[in-house]
Every structure is written in structure tokens, then in C-alpha cells.
Amino acid sequence: MYSRPIDIHNIDDGVDRKQLSQLKQRFLDLNAQRHERTCAALTDRQQQFVQVLPLLFHVNHPMLPGYISHSTPAGVYQYAPSNDDLRIAKIIARSFQYNRDLAEKKCAIDALFIMGSVGTIAQSDSSDLDLWVCHSLNEDNPLLQELERKCTLISQWAAVQVRLEVHFFLMRCDEFTHSRTQHLSSEASGSAQHFLLLDEFYRTALWLAGKIPLWWFVPASQEKNYTAYRDTLLGKRFLKEEDLVDFGSLPHIPPNEFIGAGIWQLYKAIESPYKSVLKLLLLEVYASAHIIDDMPAMSGADGLDDFSEPHFHTPTAEEESAANIAAEPLALSLKRAIYNDTPDADALDPYVMVYRRIEQYLLEHGQLQRLELVRRCFYFKVNKALSRTSRHTQKSWQRKLLEGLVKEWNWSSHQLHMLDNRAYWKAPHVISERTLLVNELNQSYRLLSELSKHQYQDIAISSDELAILGRKLHAAFERKAGKIEWINPGISRDLSEDALCFVHKQQEQQENWQVIRGSQNDLALRNINVEPIKHARSLVELLLWCHANEILASHTKVDIIAPTFSISANQKQLLIQTLQQWLPLPMLRDHQQFMRPAAVERMLILVNTGVEPQADLHKKGMQMLSNQKDALGYSGLRENLMINADIIQVNSWGELVCRHYPSDALINCLQHYCRLFPPGKHFSLPELSIRCFSTGQGNNIAQRLTDLWRDLISCFYSGTRPRSSRYILEMGDEYLLLQFFQQQPQIQRFKSYDKLLNKLAQAQSDFSPMVIDRYALRDKPLRIIGDIAKQCGIYLFYQLDQQQAQITIIDEKGSLFTTTTEYHNQQTLLRPMVNFIRAALQRQSHNIDFNNGTNPQDIQIYELTGNIKQHQGIAERRELHNNLNQLHYINIKAIAEMDSTQALRFTIFCNEQEFSSLVYGDDLFKAVASYIVRRRKQGERYPCYITDLDLSLCQDTLAQQTGLQLGHYLQLKAELEQKLNSALALL
């Protein structure tokens, strides 16, 4: 027919109207072929709907779909329904009668186009219709809303009546050229993509009725001179402007548009990668004119850091020429082909053209592995199973075209059979394919990131949108310790296995679990080494991975081969059920979640999987009974029943993490939790579940840990106690102390009660009250003390034991001071101590911040009575006599200072008599003791007490970080008194 090229490049020499007519006919011929192919893939009812679409927009008839009112904008330019169109309309609405008076005299609809995959090799039964309704209404025209409503009603009618998904887009030519930037969402592609959309429209648009595109008549060689060429065509009346719709030129696609489009495709690719890889590769090809990339060969790893950064440089002439050819919009290539020869619908199929351009690009770069992936993506997109016999007696044009391509690719029948059964691929195959897909997505992300750096002034999206994409990619594909990978992003329909075997192997003091397809009997019968589909450090992690990826289903038989692993059939079933109930599938995440940092939403702690506390007793069918029910210190043996633990957590981005702690389970779990959630930060704590399936004590262990976490949350996260609180609990024969320093948890262990007291005596930066676990220190006075000393203040506790008194003081920062002294009566016991405390508080009163209006002189005194060891102790408030200060005693005041070696030196005043270390040296305390004995009437040797102490000259040395507190004074007081009383005893 029209085999000769059409040359209208030089319009100044005039244009042959016959060539313009031939050119128009070539475009219409190609359009007719695509229209025929579109209808061939539709049902009869759907074909009728497509045929009658122009009529629906041409008239407003109450019985036709989409009717709003007679005033709704209607009338399609130069459209006249055929007899067949009217026949179909009467099938839809029997009472319909076409009357030319129904049609608007002034047509509001310029043209109707369908764009997208319809009429292409990729059209399928599920393909939807995207229709451009080109109109001439102003944006402020109130009737525009009626037209939008009409489109909505037609869409709804099509969905119900002909089972066809139809989307309408109202377009004004002049408005299209002034595209508005949109924000990224789960339903929109974000930044303005004017030229990419125009490229897709020009190469895929199927004209239905109305005006035809002016773009057809501007040669590709004149695309950069589009405006002048168009004006000449119209000005010299080669074409009638009223017959044309003009969306503008397509000289090139600016790089800033690649970013928004790429982000949108990457979003879609996370769940359905095959559909997006072709479009992402096309974007990369287009971008090749703007960025010269090293394009490293694809590796087998799939981490986000597996690719070298793309880089910009000044390209050579050859590189620039090749890049410009590759980056030419496909729509221009389509137009060139139509100008050159009779259009070949197969060669000019939009999806075939996309593939050919990508193929050429990858071959030039020698990237054959990526090319094979692209071919698979194309094959899956076409979705014609060539290994299976067609249901139709005659092959479809799509099948024939695909067979020709596959023959070029030299694919074997075995390979086709494998691809056609993708829906049933199992884990090994899916993991391998996922690796290639993830690599491709990573490559695209890096390209977008590099483009955004160099096009930051022009990009129409914010850096936040790129960051959100990064978050989604990291959540979906980043590898990190303990993270459960989702291996099936739309690759296979069913990964489930009938049987799975979990095998435990000890390797160089490391736990190694493997999961193998098949049952234990299958493995024994094969008698060969079978490649496991996954390794992990714990059984729970492997089970979770299999469940999350739906490899482990409700019908799957599970065998566990682990000689040293103790798990019964019932425990195994409970464990699997717990995982399935805790993590319902599928997991769906809203786009809004990625606008915020990831936050852990739920946490599951599984205790003692595969181990049994008191295992020797259980082997004998026995169980230890005890009144001591604390699972962390069970029975008189104080046995810690928590042996190991697995922590599973899922965050707001859908990341699933599993951590296994084979030893020190309690401490590791506490540290894990507290590091994730430092007190004082504004976040919600996760929903926490704790389960234990140990025989006999499983429920007790789970309840004990649940109570512990509830108490910890009350202590550190309820806002009722200071963040610096010190939580004390017992575990086995140890004492644990949990405290936060700079929002990081520290857990210290003590083998003895005395060592715990020494730790509690240390200075604190802030008020740090003791919080005693509900099961801890039940036979110790510290439990009673901790229950009372909750508020900032000075507390003095004493406990009498025959002729001895145990004194415990809580200072203004919660530090503990304990001492034992002789007891004669309450006054002589309390007199020296209370006066010293008041003197010390007076010296530092300007530095103390007492809460709740507590008076620093208000020392709360309690006597501990009752049988504390039998859990029957109480604290009774005691008051001092008002004449306490009038009792006679020797005032002994000490002043401390640092010498040149940074050692403490003292000057002591006894009733204003001065004794200095400068004078007495090492005999200072002997001299003071001698003076005191001489002052006593009978020269008695009973103990003497320091009544005042000045530390003002050595504060920086003693307490540089925390500042001086009462505990410093009490400690030095005790040391001085010990030396002084020792000197008294030697006289």
C-alpha cells in the first residue's frame, strides 16, 4: 500500500496534501488494527460497550448509562453514530431513539482516546480501560462537575453490567501543558510527569472518535521545532485547526520526570516487581542520555549496598550519540516508523517496542543476565502459556507474536514449562528469582538517588518522597541480623509444602538449624545430602520464616530432628499455633506508616523452646513442688526456670525481626527491650505477649515474666517515677539492678546481698529511688525501706538486735548508707546521727532540689520491727524529743581538704580546740582521742561521733560528676569515726 517514505520535513518548500492524507491514513490504519485487536480480547458485551462509548458522550438520554441531565456537556466533534452503534444502543436501552436534536449543536467533547495496554500484546482479560475525554470546557465551568459525574456513572455501569474496569480522565489540551505537581501517595505517582505521560499517550492511544492528534503531522525530525512547524501547517491551511487536538511536542523527556515516575514504579514493584521492571528499565534507558553509568554486572547478593554509585562524566561523542538514540522517546520512534513505511502492528506494538529498546540497551552494555530477567518479565506480562495447548482452535495474534520472540531467545520447552508453572514455584526457585528482582530494584533506586542529586533544582518532588521510598525498600529488602525476609513479592501463588523437616546441627559451638523440604522419612529414603532452603540460629526463627512466607501452612507436616532438643508433639503444635495466631497473614501496611520512623508495634517472647527446666526430674516423671512459686527463683534451691528465649517483634513498616538468646535469657531480654524503648522518649510501647510451653511450670513462667514486664513498665514508662529509678530483682542466687544511664540500660549482677548494698550506696546524679520487684528481697529489710522511701527526702531506718542497732539512711538522691553501732537507748543512738545529718544538709541546702515541698530538716525516722526473715516485718514511725539538742556532748567538727598528692587531709576541732594534720601528721587521731578522754570525767572509752563535716574544698575531687550529697558526708563520717574510735581503744 504505502510503502514509500513520507517526507514533509522541509515545510518551507511546501507540503503535498496528498502526503498528509497518506500519513493520516497510515495512522488510522494502525489505529484500526489496534482497535480490532482490542475488541478481539473482549467479550461480546464488552465490545458493544467500547463501540457505543462515543454515543454515550454524544447525547444525553435518560435511558443510557451516565445520564445526569440534558444540560450535561455532550456532543463529540464530527461524530455520527452508525446503524450498528444505534442497534447496540437499543440493546442497552430498548426505548432509545436517536434524534439528531439530542446531539449538542456545539460539541463539548473534542475527542475520545483509550490509552494503555489495550490493543497490545500485553492486553489480558483483566486489563482495564483508561479513557481520555478531551473537552473544551473551562475549569470554572459549573457543568464540568456534571461531566465528571457522568464519567463516574458510566464507570459504575460498566463494572456491574459488562465486568469491565473503566477509568475516565477529563483532559483539556491547554491545561495539560501546564501540569500540576502532585504529592506521592499509595495511589498517585507524585511528581509531575508531563512528557512521560505524553510519550505513553502518543504511542499507545487508541482513537475512538472526534479530533485527531496534530502531533501525527509533525515529522520526528521537526519535534524540537514543533511550534513553528505547527503554526506553518495551520497558518497555510494545510490542516484545519478545528479538526485537530494538540497536546504539544515531545522533543525529549527531561530527567527530573524520571525521578517521580521511578519512585512510583518502585512503590508498585515492592509488591509486584514483574509488572514494574520493564517500566523501570525503560526509564533507565531514557535516563542514559543524562547519566553515564558504570552499570556493573549483577551479582548474586541483594543488599542495598551491592551496587556502585552511578556517576556523571563528560561523555565521548560515540557515547553521546548512542545515549541520544537510546533516550529518544519511543513515541518518536513510532512516528518515524510510520513515516518510513506501511505500519506493522506487530513491530509497532507498544510493549514490543519497549522490549526492543531495552534489549538493544542491555546488549550494548553486555548485561545478559538482566536481559534474561527482562525477557521473563515480558513473558509474564503477556501471560500466554506457550507450553500449554491453546483453548482456541486458532492461535491468537498475541500467541503467534510471542512464539516468534521466544524462538529468537532460544528458550527450550523445559524452560517454557517452568515459566508457565510460576504460580507453583517453591521456595528455592522463588529465592533465586527474588535475588535478581531485588538487584534490579536496587539498581533503579540508586539511579534515582543519583539523578535526584544532580537534578535537585528541577525535580518536582521533595526529598521526603525519596526518603519514603528508601524506607519502603529497606523494609522490604534490606538484610540485617535476625530480620525475616519476605521472599515472595508476587512471584509464586503457592509456596506451601506438604512436609518440612527442621534439622539441628552443632557446628563449632554455634547453633545451626536447617529447614529441608520433605518429611523425616523422605530424607531417610533419599539417602543423599539434600540442600536446605534456609539456615538459621534457632528453631523459632526458622518456623517464623516458613510461616511468614507461607511455606508452613495449616496442612504442613512438621518433623524436628534434634537429638539434644527437647520438644514434644504437643509443644511443637502449640509453638506453631502461637506463631500463626500472633502473625496473621497477609500483613498489609498503609503508605502513611512510612512517613514516620519505624516503631515496634507488637512483641512476642517465647521462653524455653526445646529445653526443660528441672529436666532430670521430668525424665523420672516427677515434679518439684514448693511454696516458693517465683519462676526466677523457684523452690528452696532458688532455681531460675527461664533458660532460653526468642524475641519476635514487628514494626510499623512491616519489618519482622527474631532474636534468639540461648543463655542469660532474662538479662538479654531485659536489655533488648530497654534498649529499644529508653524512658522519656515519646513513643507507644508495643503490645507484649509472653508464652512458655515448658512441662509443668510453663504457665507459671509466662505469668511471672508478664508480671515482671508489667512492673517494669509501671516503674520506667508510666511517668509516676523518676527515669533514674533503680529496679531490683532476684534471679536464681543473684541480685539484679537495672538502671538507665543516658537513656541506655545497665543491668548489674551481684552474688551477695552485701555487694548489692554497696552498689546502692554509690552516688547518683539525680534522685534515684529503689523499686523492689514484687518477688525480691522478701526476707530483707531493704524491701520495707524501698516501699517507704519513694519520694525525695531523708530517711533514717534502724533495726535493733539485742545490743546492736543496724542503721540505714536514704539520702536526698536515694543513695543508701548502712552502719552498725552499739545500742543503749533511742536518744544516744539517734542524737549524733540526726545532728550530723542536719549540719550536712545545712551546708549543702542550696544544692538540694527536694520535691513536693519536702523540708530538708524533716528527717523521717522509722524503726524496723517484726520478723523480717519470715516476711512479717513492718516499719514504725518514730519521733525525737524536742530537747534533743540540749543533751550534752562534745562537738567534733572535721574540715577536709586535698593536699598536693590529691589525698584527703583533715583538720579537727573538739569544742573549738584545733587539731591539724599539718601539726600532728599521722598522730592526728591519737591526739584528738587523748583530748576527748581528758575531757570526760571518768576517762571513759565509749565511742565518740563526728558532729559536723566540711567538704567544700574537695567537692570536685569527691563528686565531680554527681555533686556532693549526704552519702558522701556519711561515708567520710564513718571512716573518721572508725579511726578516731580505734585510737580511743588504744589509749
Secondary-structure content class: alpha/beta
Strand order of the largest sheet: 21-20-19-22-23
Number of strands: 27
How many angstroms separate the termini? 133 Å
Helicity range of the residues?
25-40%
Strand content: 15-25%
Give the averaged pLDDT, no decimals: 86
Biggest beta-sheet profile: 5 strands, mixed
Overall 3D shape: elongated
Parts with pLDDT < 50 across at least 5 consecutive residues: 180-191, 293-314
Radius of gyration using CA atoms only:
42 Å
Number of helices: 30
Give the helix/strand layout.
Layout: H1 17-40, H2 44-58, H3 83-92, E1 109-115, E2 129-135, H4 143-161, E3 166-171, H5 173-176, H6 194-204, E4 206-210, E5 212-213, H7 226-235, E6 244-245, H8 255-271, H9 273-287, H10 317-327, H11 330-340, H12 350-364, H13 368-382, H14 397-409, H15 413-420, H16 427-454, H17 463-477, E7 499-507, E8 510-517, H18 520-526, E9 534-536, H19 539-548, E10 557-561, H20 569-582, E11 600-607, H21 615-619, E12 645-651, E13 656-661, H22 665-676, E14 687-692, H23 698-716, E15 726-731, E16 734-741, E17 744-750, H24 753-760, E18 770-772, H25 781-788, E19 794-801, E20 804-810, E21 816-822, H26 826-844, E22 859-865, E23 874-878, E24 892-898, E25 904-910, E26 913-916, H27 917-920, H28 924-935, E27 948-950, H29 955-958, H30 966-986
Helix pairs in contact: 2-3, 6-11, 8-9, 8-16, 8-17, 9-12, 9-13, 9-16, 12-13, 16-17, 19-20, 28-30
